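Internal ticket - ligand job 415, flavin-adenine dinucleotide:
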Amino acid sequence: MELDLGPEANKFRQEIRTWIADNAPEGLADLTDWNASSFGSIDESFDNALQSPQYAEWSDRLLKAGMICASWPKEYGGQDWDAIQNTIFAEEAFRAGVPTVNRGFGESMVGPSVMVNGSQEQKDHFLPRIISGQDVYCQGFSEPDHGSDLASVSTRGIIDGDEIVITGQKVWTSGYFRANMIFILVRTDTDAPKHRGISYVLLPFTAENGVDKRPLRMISGAAEFGHEYFDGSRAPIFNIIGGINNGWKVAMTTLGHERSGSATIASLRYEKQFWSLVDLARKHGRDKDPVVRQQLAWAYSHVQVIRYQGLRILAQIAAGKEPGPEASATKLFWSDYEQRLGEIAVGIEGAEALIRAESTGPHEREPGDYIPNFWQNIFLFSRAHTIYSGTNEIQRNIISERVLGMPKEPSAARG
Ligand SMILES: Cc1cc2nc3c(=O)[nH]c(=O)nc-3n(C[C@H](O)[C@H](O)[C@H](O)COP(=O)(O)OP(=O)(O)OC[C@H]3O[C@@H](n4cnc5c(N)ncnc54)[C@H](O)[C@@H]3O)c2cc1C
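stdout (structure tokens):
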């Protein structure tokens, strides 16, 4: 998909295209399929490519050119890129087969939350460390008994002089193994109504700081997320964003950014995936099978709907409106779509889908494990899509209450 977004955007596209051609290190595009999803880690080539000198050089060039966290305002180290410029950059990187380098949770969630809710000193301290890659964050919201009902978090934070001391457990923490910082919700007042006794803390996420990190293995064999025990972990009060007991508001800023996410460029990946599915059907001699053809037509039409959903969000942002609860409809649509896509693909693979290759053991797997192929991974990992970033049931609640204006769900949990 290449959008015609008018002369200004087209000029920007040409500049970016030339910049990528001039600056992408030789061989970078061939190291791995950067355009495939890295979710659930399909094979080791992606991890190896991330460790390569070409990737390090590329990151360095992007950093020097201000193309990391480029959507952040200039005053915070970004380029003030708007949604259209971001989309163009992502499309051009996709087209060239090179990765965009982003700072994960730090870029998409912590940074915006600090910009909106932090003091000037906090912005000056935390934001440059995200851009440079010095601080890599993971998200510590969910607990064993509190996922959707986030306001019930029970991990304790006790103020001790000029520090906060944290004790408790978090779970399902994506990318825990690469993070040295965690943005964590803790209960700092047990007597206040539950939304009002929570603080949002940027906590050093290290064993030296009393954090015991353990992997959680997924059905795909990967351990991309973990659970952690905090035993007297400390952070300066300076690291509490938005003030003590005011964390709920900050968390809502964070989640708003999580859900609006990358809806505008998702269709590029889905389109590519669709054509791989067509190749798979050909490879297995199933492309003339009327049932398979019907499934392929179903998949293609869904990819087009995802594309138009992305364009709608893009148009909305271009018109100066923040993505609202409609983003829930988009998330609901693609998460259900990818689950069905995985089922179609393993159906086409047939008995072959039951066999997995033996792993040589990258960081998240044990040597001797069996790793899924591309389609097995889509099939297995897509189970998670209807759970993270708000489950499908929660998305439906948002749509019914905030888009359709239906009565609010009666809930003791509202507190
Ligand atoms: C791949 C993956 C990555 C994740 N990464 C992170 C991370 O990095 N950091 C983090 O903090 N968390 C993370 N999570 C956790 C995720 O946010 C939670 O799993 C999610 O919020 C659901 O919470 P829960 O698992 O406790 O389920 P529950 O909230 O217990 O829900 C159980 C079931 O009840 C339904 N339900 C709950 N409340 C309602 C309601 N009000 N109305 C209707 N139905 C309801 C749910 O839809 C679900 O089907 C991740 C999860 C996955 C799968």
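Auto-summary: Residues 261-414 form a domain with the Butyryl-CoA Dehydrogenase, subunit A; domain 3 fold (CATH 1.20.140.10). Residues 138-142, 147-149, 172-174, 225, 384, 387-388, 391, 393-394, 397, 409 surround flavin-adenine dinucleotide (CB under 6 Å).
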